[in-house]
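Input record, target 12 of the design panel.
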């Protein structure tokens, strides 16, 4: 039975209840899975992202990847935000901005850069409420939300006032670049675990006379009852040698260096650097400062992107339907005062100010000074 909600004078169906939602595919995945999913998503005639998004759901479980994603998103979500009307803060929006629902909206906006698209269906009522539309059902190329994740029949969303779909129709998100790295890392960890299982314990070798069956049976019983380490029984006349690979990979450093490389690549994709997440033997204060500045630039870009999305006319109109007075206002993030940057900046500004007139608004805006 399809659920419904009341919208003043009449009832409407919630779109998500009309969708046949499938669980994420948790089957075994490898590089060929990623390649085939990418081909399907980029198809000119029948584009479908369902397999690619199943892969994203799988690789997002990687500890390092989820950590750097959280680090990038928290830098925006935890930033002070306020609603401004005619240059003055409107405190009537404070409760909304600090609500869990609004925080979730900001998270969905930032996730759009990871997945390529996001979709939200707002439920009319007195308070902000919504349902997240499964990305596998959103077909941005056709502008519809399909009933089946691999289907072509669905509901056009461009004219629906309470449905907000974010993202570029051709964008497949940053996770597209991270997915193969996670798959390689998973294989590297598996190889490392196998290496430890084989070479992490001593090998027990017992020799017996080939004609002495009674001794052979007794020795086998001793091996079975004395632990699970690798053991070998050989006739005295046989030769046995283990090539343990320790000359070229004494402590599993080969697998460790490979995994570190993959983690660094994911850090660069998400954060633009490595030194703000992982320490390096070659890194110093200067290098770390440069990497921090690179991450700061990405955060600034994320802040601009999030603010643009929050000030999108459609989202403001949706807030207006909940009774918020959005006319003539906008969401604004508080400015960070980078002392090192401002110190360099003011030295330049003083020289420039001696040559040409600089508007007062520039000083107020650049140095975060509140106008009287």
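The sequence produced for target 12 reads:
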């Amino acid at each position: 039975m399809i659920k419904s909600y009341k919208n003043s004078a009449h009832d409407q169906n919630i779109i998500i209840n009309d969708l046949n939602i499938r669980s994420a595919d948790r089957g075994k995945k490898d590089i060929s899975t990623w390649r085939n999913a990418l081909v399907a998503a980029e198809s000119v005639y029948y584009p479908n992202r369902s397999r690619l998004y199943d892969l994203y759901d799988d690789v997002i479980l990687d500890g390092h990847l989820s950590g750097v994603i959280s680090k990038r998103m928290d830098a925006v979500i935890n930033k002070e935000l306020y609603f401004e009307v005619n240059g003055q803060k409107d405190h009537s929006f404070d409760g909304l901005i600090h609500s869990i629902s609004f925080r979730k909206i900001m998270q969905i906006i930032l996730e759009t850069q990871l997945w390529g698209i996001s979709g939200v269906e707002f439920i009319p009522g007195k308070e902000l409420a919504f349902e997240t539309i499964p990305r596998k059902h959103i077909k941005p190329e056709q502008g519809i939300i399909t009933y089946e994740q691999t289907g072509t029949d669905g509901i056009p969303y461009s004219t629906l006032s309470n449905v907000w779909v974010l993202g570029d129709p051709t964008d497949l998100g940053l996770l597209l670049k991270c997915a193969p790295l996670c798959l390689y890392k998973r294989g590297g960890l598996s190889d490392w675990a196998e290496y430890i299982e084989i070479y992490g314990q001593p090998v027990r070798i017992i020799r017996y006379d080939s004609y002495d069956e009674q001794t052979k049976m007794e020795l086998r019983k001793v091996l079975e009852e004395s632990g699970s380490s690798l053991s070998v029984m050989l006739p005295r006349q046989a030769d046995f040698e283990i090539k343990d690979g320790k000359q070229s990979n004494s402590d599993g450093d080969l697998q460790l260096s490979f995994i570190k490389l993959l983690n660094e690549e994911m850090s660069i994709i998400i954060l633009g650097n490595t030194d703000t997440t992982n320490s390096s033997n070659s890194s110093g204060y200067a290098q770390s400062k440069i990497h921090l500045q690179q991450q700061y630039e990405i955060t600034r870009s994320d802040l601009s992107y999030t603010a643009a999305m929050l000030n999108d006319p459609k989202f403001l109109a949706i807030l207006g339907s909940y009774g918020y007075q959005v006319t003539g206002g906008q969401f604004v993030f508080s400015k960070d005062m980078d002392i090192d940057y401002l110190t360099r900046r003011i030295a330049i500004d003083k020289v420039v100010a001696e040559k040409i007139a600089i508007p007062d608004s520039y000083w107020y805006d650049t140095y975060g000074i509140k106008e009287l």
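Residues 1-201+252-336 form one domain.
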